[in-house]
Specification:
The chain is α+β, with helices and mostly antiparallel strands and 158 residues long. It has a single domain (31-157), classed as Glutaredoxin. It is built from 5 helices and 9 strands. The chain has a 7-stranded mixed sheet with strand order 2-1-5-4-3-8-9. Strand 4, helix 3 and strand 5 (92-95) form a beta-alpha-beta unit. The longest helix has 15 residues, at 143-157. The model has no long low-confidence stretch (mean pLDDT 92).
Length: 158
C-alpha cells in the first residue's frame, strides 16, 4: 500500500485491523453508514486524549447522524485497551502496528520535531465506501464539532 494522496471522491482503501475489543474490523463492516476514520499519533498523549474524549462526548450525536467513529494508531491492542479504559472512551480504536493502513490513507509523514510518524488526519467515508471529506492538520480542540458540521452538510447534499 503506497503512501499516495487520497482525494475526496476516491474509493476508501480497504482495511482489516484488530481493535481494543479484541475483534478484527474491516471497512466493509461500515458499509451503508458513514464512517469517521481518524488517525492519531499515540495513546495517552495530550492532543490524542483531547481528540478521543471529544469524539466520545459527541458519539451519540454522531451516531444519530448515521456514522460510526474509529480511531487508528500504531499503538498495540493492549495500549488501546488501557487508553480506552482510563479515559472511558466510547469509540473503537484499531491497532495498525506496521502503519500499513495509516500509509494507505496518506496519514504518515514528517511531524516536524517529532520526526516521521502518524499525522493527525480524519476521513469521512460515505455509506458507499468513498472518501467524502478529508481533514488534514487536525487540531484536537473542537475537531468533533467540525466533523459533525461536515456530516450534516454531507447528509443535506443527498
Amino acid at each position: 500500500m503506497a503512501n499516495k494522496k487520497l482525494k475526496e471522491g476516491d474509493k476508501a482503501p480497504d482495511f482489516s485491523l484488530f481493535g481494543a475489543d479484541g475483534r478484527e474490523h474491516s471497512l466493509s463492516e461500515y458499509k451503508g453508514k458513514y464512517l469517521i476514520l481518524y488517525f492519531y499519533p499515540k495513546d495517552n498523549t495530550p492532543g490524542c486524549t483531547i481528540e478521543a474524549k471529544e469524539f466520545t462526548d459527541h458519539a451519540e450525536e454522531i451516531r444519530g447522524l448515521g456514522a460510526e467513529i474509529v480511531g487508528i494508531s500504531k499503538d498495540s491492542i493492549d495500549s488501546h485497551q488501557k487508553f480506552a479504559s482510563k479515559q472511558k472512551l466510547a469509540i473503537q480504536l484499531l491497532s495498525d502496528p506496521d502503519s500499513k493502513v495509516i500509509k494507505a490513507y496518506g496519514a504518515y509523514g514528517d511531524r516536524g520535531i517529532f520526526g516521521m510518524g502518524t499525522l493527525r488526519q480524519t476521513f469521512i467515508i460515505s455509506p458507499e465506501g468513498k472518501i467524502a471529506k478529508i481533514f488534514e492538520k487536525v487540531k484536537p480542540n473542537g475537531h468533533a464539532n467540525e466533523v459533525i458540521e461536515a456530516l450534516k452538510e454531507l447528509k443535506n447534499k443527498k
